[in-house]
């Protein structure tokens, strides 16, 4: 692999202009493609085959009108102080407001609170349902603007008016300040690392080009595949972080070689062969981890993983081609400044410690104590994971300034928390001799279940063999008691089917979200096991060791559990939510554990490869385990530190995003990288390697012969070059 990358790096530096303008041309073509085709995101996050989805299929089949109905907007009214909705003045203001709605020709019908009886018990709050001629996603911005204007007019007249329903008034923003903040912080870190604005700018340029092409590819693909808007944000988050990091590794190696007096073109070729090999391997590891999300069998998670994997593939290819080309363009201007001569006494100290730094000497001096501290800290941070709850964010978790949150709160105030998460129970009486009697009896029994606020009368379909019942819980959509109610209904369905010959099926957005969470919880152990097995086999081949892969996997599991524990502590338990700008505490995103597992595995292996490969390279030459650890922390440690800080800053910048899903993901990923890079890779790993000593590199000879050889650090190309030099010297 290293030999091919050596030739690729040499070719890219020689054909630098063609390579640069080639990538720019691809970016322009992709942008034109997006402008021509447009963007068609699909935010469906259902999972085919779950109990709620099967019930929804029956509901749509037996009650076809419910599927064909147009989008609905709810105008929610609250009477002024001292009045109620039946007060003559308030009644007139509400009726005048609804009359204005009829001016919109897109409106199919209006059900006022007085006609539909949608008025709270204290008569202070009620809502009107506005049904449009088109589906919710096709209601025009003009119609939405009219509703907003009408609501403001009602507010001026003294009636608090909020907007809810199935028509969305806010969407996930594509791009924005998050990426910009991440880039600015990353640039500052690079300037500090390289002490050069030119060297700091190159990783930013290549990452932006790679991310741009990857993002355009996702936008074009949205016209052909079911892709969620959050997939683009996730891909941007990961693509930008690894794009900067991969360029950083190659440029750092190039500058080190220039400082040693190597020719520019030769240095570029060697940097691509050595650091480029590690970039290629690390990138492929991230891609495999992200693609591995597809084995879970959940469509929206598959699209997220594949979208992010595609972006990582593009930035990886940019790193091993465009970076060498730009390095060829800048030439010697990237060479670091030579350090001034030091006095003889100081030079002795420098020489003594030239292959180590203070951190390396500290870690290798107290390995037992450091391992114990790391385990204790991990245990403390991970403890909240024991009460982790999963769910999907609802409007109650949005900012109080949003339209959806205000409507959510007003509906809950008037009708209870359950109004925002109704359960739809489908009654199948096709085998019952007297369906009407059976339906009525079942509805009464449902009303007797714990945590039930109300049950609507059964609504039969045209054949009379099926009926639909709406159950309002006393608790909100993400409350654990609501989940218990869903389970109670399903448990009751087993007995009702036998006694009443009526089959019960529960669905609705709340039930669907509960099923998705359960499905993802079941999938997590399987996916984690797959990742662990893959890591063990991969690292066994790369590092030719049995204990190093085991240590790497255990470190990854520590990172995963600590990250989930931190996420529960902040996002679910509500600690520091004001500091991080989280509107409301609530259950963790139901797909976060699986997503975190896939992403963190790939990123953790990145740092493992860059750190351990240097240890293995030095151990191969020196046969001194302790010196190889010190050398790795001295030479690779600063680069890994800078790379970790860059990735943390990019992920953390997404905390500023408006969407709660993106905000939560950015926060969790930022902590995960922080913990893995500094607690595990830079602290625990060298301490454990010190304790293991030479045994860390033990591999039975029979196994060594049977394993394929993967040259991550480019040893083969370096040996080849050194061999050619030796031949020339002997000949001379």
How does this structure look, described?
The structure is a single chain. By secondary structure, this protein is α+β, with helices and mostly antiparallel strands. The chain has three domains: 1-39 and 174-336 and 705-732, Multidrug efflux transporter AcrB transmembrane fold; 72-165, EIF_2_alpha (Alpha-Beta Plaits); 359-388 and 521-699, Up-down Bundle (Multidrug efflux transporter AcrB transmembrane fold). The protein has 27 helices and eleven strands. The chain has helices at residues 2-14, 16-37, 51-62, 64-68, 88-101, 113-116, 141-156, 177-194, 197-221, 229-259, 264-291, 299-330, 344-352, 358-365, 367-382, 403-415, 435-447, 480-499, 509-543, 547-572, 577-580, 592-622, 625-635, 637-653, 660-692, 701-706, 715-731, and strands spanning 72-78, 107-111, 125-132, 160-165, 390-391, 423-428, 452-455, 459-460, 466-473, 503-507, 588-589. Residues 339-352 and 725-732 have low confidence and may be disordered.
User: How large a portion of the residues is in β-strands, by DSSP E?
Assistant: 5-15%
Shape: elongated
The CATH topology assignment of the largest domain is Multidrug efflux transporter AcrB transmembrane fold
The tally of helices reads 27
Question: Domains counted in the coordinates: how many?
Answer: 3
Instruction: Give me the CATH architecture of the largest domain, please.
Output: Up-down Bundle
Q: Count the E strands.
A: 11
| Helix percent band | 55-70%
- CATH level 1 name of the largest domain: Mainly Alpha
The mean pLDDT is 85
Question: Main sheet, how many strands, which sense, barrel?
Answer: 5 strands, antiparallel
User: Low-confidence parts lasting 5 or more residues at pLDDT below 50?
Assistant: 339-352, 725-732
Structural class: alpha+beta
Q: What's the end-to-end separation, in Å?
A: 31 Å
Query: What is the radius of gyration?
Result: 31 Å
The CATH superfamily of the largest domain is identified as Multidrug efflux transporter AcrB transmembrane domain
């Amino acid at each position: 692999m290293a030999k091919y990358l050596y030739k690729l790096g040499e070719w890219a530096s020689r054909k630098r202009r063609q390579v640069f303008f080639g990538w720019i041309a691809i970016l322009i073509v992709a942008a034109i493609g997006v402008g021509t085709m447009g963007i068609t995101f699909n935010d469906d996050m259902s999972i085919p085959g779950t109990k709620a989805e099967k019930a929804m299929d029956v509901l749509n089949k037996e009650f076809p009108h419910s599927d064909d109905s147009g989008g609905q907007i709810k105008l929610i009214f609250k009477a002024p102080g001292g009045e109620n909705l039946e007060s003559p003045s308030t009644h007139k203001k509400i009726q005048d407001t609804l009359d204005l709605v009829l001016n919109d020709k897109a409106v199919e019908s209006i059900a006022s609170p007085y006609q539909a009886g949608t008025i709270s018990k204290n008569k202070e709050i009620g809502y009107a349902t506005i049904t449009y001629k088109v589906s919710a996603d096709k209601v025009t911005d003009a119609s939405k603007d009219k509703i907003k204007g009408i609501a403001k007019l009602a507010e001026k007249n003294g009636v608090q008016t909020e907007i809810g329903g199935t028509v969305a008034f806010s969407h996930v923003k594509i791009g924005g300040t998050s990426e910009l903040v991440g880039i600015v912080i990353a640039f500052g870190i690079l300037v500090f690392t390289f002490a050069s604005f030119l060297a700091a700018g190159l990783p930013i340029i290549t990452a932006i080009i790679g991310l741009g092409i990857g993002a355009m590819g996702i936008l074009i693909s949205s016209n052909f595949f079911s892709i969620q808007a959050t997939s683009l944000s996730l891909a941007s988050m990961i693509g930008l972080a690894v794009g900067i990091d991969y360029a950083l590794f190659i440029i750092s190696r190039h500058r080190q070689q220039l400082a040693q007096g190597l020719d520019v073109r030769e240095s570029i070729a060697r940097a691509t062969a050595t650091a480029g090999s590690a970039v290629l391997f690390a990138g492929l590891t991230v891609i495999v981890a992200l693609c591995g999300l597809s084995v879970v069998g959940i469509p929206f998670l598959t699209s997220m993983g594949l979208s992010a994997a595609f972006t990582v593939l593009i930035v990886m290819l940019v790193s091993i081609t465009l970076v060498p080309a730009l390095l060829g363009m800048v030439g010697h201007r990237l060479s670091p400044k030579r350090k001034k001569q030091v006095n003889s006494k100081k030079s002795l100290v420098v020489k003594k410690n030239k292959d180590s730094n203070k951190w390396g000497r500290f870690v290798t001096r107290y390995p037992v104590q450091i391992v114990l501290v790391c385990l204790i800290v991990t245990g403390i941070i991970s403890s909240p994971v024991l009460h982790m709850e999963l769910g999907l964010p609802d409007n109650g978790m949005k900012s109080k300034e949003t339209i959806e949150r205000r409507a959510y709160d007003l509906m809950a105030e008037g009708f209870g928390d359950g109004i925002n998460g109704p359960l739809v129970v489908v009654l199948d009486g096709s085998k019952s001799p007297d369906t009407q009697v059976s339906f009525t009896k079942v509805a009464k029994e449902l009303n007797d279940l714990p945590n039930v606020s109300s049950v609507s009368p059964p609504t039969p379909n045209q054949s009379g063999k099926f009926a639909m019942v709406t159950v309002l819980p006393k608790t909100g959509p993400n409350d654990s008691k609501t989940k218990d109610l869903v389970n109670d209904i399903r448990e009751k369905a087993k007995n009702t089917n036998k006694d009443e010959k009526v089959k019960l099926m529960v669905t609705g957005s709340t039930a669907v979200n509960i099923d998705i969470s359960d499905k993802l919880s079941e999938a997590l152990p399987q996916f984690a096991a797959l990742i662990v097995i893959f890591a063990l086999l991969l690292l066994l081949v790369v590092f030719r060791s049995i204990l190093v892969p085991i240590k790497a996997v255990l470190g990854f599991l520590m990172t995963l559990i600590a990250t989930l524990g931190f996420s529960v502590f902040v996002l679910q338990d509500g600690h520091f939510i004001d500091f991080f700008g989280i509107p409301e505490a609530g259950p963790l995103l139901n797909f976060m554990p699986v997503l975190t597992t896939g992403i963190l595995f790939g990123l953790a292996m990145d740092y493992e490869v860059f750190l351990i490969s240097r240890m293995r390279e030095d151990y191969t030459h020196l046969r001194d385990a302790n010196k190889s650890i010190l050398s790795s922390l001295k030479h690779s440690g600063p680069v890994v530190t800078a790379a970790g800080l860059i990735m943390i800053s990019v992920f953390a910048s997404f905390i500023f995003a408006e969407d709660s899903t993106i905000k939560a993901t950015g926060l969790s990923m930022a902590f995960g990288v922080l913990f893995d890079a500094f607690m595990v890779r830079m602290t625990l790993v060298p301490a454990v390697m010190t304790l293991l000593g030479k045994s860390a590199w033990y591999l039975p000879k029979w196994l060594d012969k049977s394993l394929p050889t993967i040259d991550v650090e480019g040893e083969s190309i370096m040996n080849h070059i050194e061999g050619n030099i030796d031949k020339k010297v002997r000949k001379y």
